[in-house]
Predict the structure of Multidrug resistance efflux transporter family protein.
Amino acid sequence: MKEITLGILASLFFAVTFILNRSMELSGGSWLWSSSLRYIFMVPFLLIIVMYRRNLKQMWKEMLSNPIPWILWSFVGFVLFYAPITFAAAFGPGWLVAGTWPLTIVAGVLLGPLFYKTVESNSGPSKVRQQIPIQALFISFFILIGVVLIQWQHAQSLTFEMVIASTFPVLVAAFCYPLGNRKMMEICGGKLDTFQRVFGMTLASLPFWLLLAGIGYVQVGPPSTEQITQSFIVAISSGVIATTLFFIATDRVRDNQEKLAAVEATQSTQVIFVIVGEVLLLATPLPSTLATIGLFIVMFGMLLHSFSSKKGEKSNISVKKETFS
């Protein structure tokens, strides 16, 4: 399934966020600047891409026709996602934040009933509430077991305060990110491409980022050159490349809850990339035997998601053939 490959590739670039956010905190940088600079830096790059594709006018038209939902769900999907992530980095190591983030795969599955799908019937098309894909939910929980095993070797050194301060914000982000993304897909209804949607959401959330930057300036002064540089890297890697790849993948399967759950589950692979990155860049110890077992469980869970999605796709094709025969 190509969408799963895109999701895993996005996770690779997303992993940069967890490593560099922690690095910025350890060097004295404020989370207020880490969060706001990423989205401020994203604006010119996305503007160039959308203008090059000659899609700017259409994007503005869509945003101005429905401004409140754009602002609301961009705030949920971007601000309530990334601000808590950077805040958590101030209280816990990158591996802990990255290890908590896979909760979003379960959150995404549980959000299904908040959305509707169009079903054709004898009386015409009608909207019915989406169901929670039980099989996808079980597979997602299976992946979480692997994530817990990966983190177990580190958990012994954590204090209760550190766990609360670094995991509760991530829990909030884990629900807000897929919720904001799915709501914006629903609002756009396929009328905008991924670059337009990401750029529109970035612009709609920009006032909140400028506000956080202003608070950061008052509290700690301007950001250091090192923090500006690292935030710039995060903006390109996670903000532009990873977000675009992930949104492309989810947009392709937005009408299929099982496939959507499979794509969102690819975010669990970020833990693997963060561990590898910390071993190579920060000279951290290699994972323990228990953590290695957890890595294999995560990878096996992703294979199960991929197999389940393909099986569901074949079943749908068979049903359609029977219907038209």
Q: What stands out?
A: The longest helix spans residues 289-324. The two ends are 28 Å apart (CA to CA). The chain is about 80% helix and 0% strand.
